[in-house]
Amino acid sequence: MENLVCKSIGEIKDLDETQGIIKGYGNVYNIKDSDGDVSLFGSFAKTVTERGKKIKIFKNHTPILVGVPLELDITDPYGLGVTAKMLMETDAGRDTFYEAKFLSENGFDVGMSIYGWIMKRGRNKSEVSEYKLKEISVLTTEDPANELSLVSAIKSIKGLEKPTQDEFWRVIEKAYNEKFSDNVLKSLEQFLTIKDGEPSKDTHIVNPSSVIKSIYELYV
User: Fold this and answer.
1) How far apart are the first and last CA of the chain?
2) DSSP state, 54?
3) Is 98 in contact with 92 (CB distance < 8 Å)?
4) pTM score, two decimals?
């Protein structure tokens, strides 16, 4: 068995707020990833069939449960189809869902990523014919490995090469109106206290949430 690997060439297609459902692809077939590997159709068939109930949904590969897969579709020729039910009754699950929703609606990239072992390769050593999955993550702070790993959503900010301070603070204020947990809202309140000053890399925020960090890092 090879070492654990992380493959960030998945994509999110849809988010259903009424049920806390995220749909997308944990991995896309026939696309060379950042390690030079290409996942083949059928490479997830054995692991999903044998241990599909053991595969969890994490956020950014942090070992905190944020959801469970309702369906792992190994028949889709495009990639490993994932329908995930987020644990909306928990802060971690709810914040992951609304962070993905908020970022996607405002033009930021959000994707999915698999974490597990490569079990078999084809004749071409770059081709992966069998994986063993440990978990699938929703990515909110890590860049997907290729251009297919993007959310198809409203691009209200995407394309602005150098967003102004006003545009930056407009995004932060919009985040404050989302249905995040109290901890995230408190962090946003603390973050907004520096609005009248000039943000810098050494600005100290008490317990900043990942949604704040992910947005802030894109602008400074």
Assistant:
1) 42
2) G
3) no
4) 0.72
